[in-house]
Amino acid sequence: MPAIQLIVGLGNPGSEYEPTRHNAGFWFVDDLARRCRQEFHAEPRFHSEVARCQLDGNECRLQKPLTFMNRSGQAVGALMRFFKIPVEQILVVHDELDLEPGTVRLKKGGGHGGHNGLRDLISHLGSKDFYRLRIGIGHPGHRDQVVDYVLKKPSVSDRRLIEDAICDALDVMPGVVEGQIEKAMHTLHTQK
């Protein structure tokens, strides 16, 4: 049994949101599905698009909730309960204001830090003990500007930095799914 059975990318559905910073989680799972030569398909009972992915012989599910960011927990909770996936075997990938573009961090548990997708997940899953892959998008400088900022496209240079960070994280995913999470953390956290 893989250590991580489900990788959830957080974002908002729809072409108008696709290029926005808040969709960094979707960007990640889309890239992971491409690496696994898999495509997402709609799964209405889970309010999501889902795919299956083989990473060094370990299979895991990928999920993109279609409930909009603030209701992500509804979708993840439905899939998790159906497949009886323990919360500790879920990795949630999301944008992170407190990290600069080009930075990616892996951790287990913690609060929501004002992130509405995480807030809803914690509420629906009844636990904070899932893993998080935090993709840095930078901060606009003032909290009153956050909503506008996350729903806008990053600059070309920031997008390149975010994509580089996503590539770094994709490289450690086989180890993460297998359970070598400390090693993956060390790799990601010691990169430039």
Care to give the gist of this entry?
It comes from Thiogranum longum. The protein is α/β, with parallel strands linked by helices and about 190 residues long. About 35% of the residues lie in helices and about 20% in strands.
Describe the fold and architecture.
It catalyses: an N-acyl-L-alpha-aminoacyl-tRNA + H2O = an N-acyl-L-amino acid + a tRNA + H(+). Belongs to the PTH family. Pfam families: Pept_tRNA_hydro. Monomer. The protein has 192 residues and is α/β, with parallel strands linked by helices. The protein has one domain: Peptidyl-tRNA hydrolase (Rossmann fold, 3-Layer(aba) Sandwich). The protein has helices at residues 24-35, 72-83, 116-125, 146-150, 156-178, 181-189, and strands spanning 6-9, 41-43, 48-55, 58-65, 90-96, 104-108, 131-136. A seven-stranded mixed sheet has the order 2-3-4-1-5-7-6, sandwiched between helices. Helix 2 (72-83) runs parallel beside helix 3 (116-125) and helix 5 packs antiparallel against helix 6. The longest helix has 23 residues, at 156-178. It starts with 5 loop residues before the first strand and ends with a helix. The mean pLDDT is 92.
Output the keywords.
peptidyl-tRNA hydrolase activity; globular; EC 3.1.1.29; 21% strand; tRNA-binding; alpha/beta
Would you spell out the secondary-structure blueprint of this structure?
Blueprint: E1 6-9, H1 24-35, E2 41-43, E3 48-55, E4 58-65, H2 72-83, E5 90-96, E6 104-108, H3 116-125, E7 131-136, H4 146-150, H5 156-178, H6 181-189
Parallel strand pairs: 1-4, 1-5, 5-7
Antiparallel strand pairs: 2-3, 3-4, 6-7
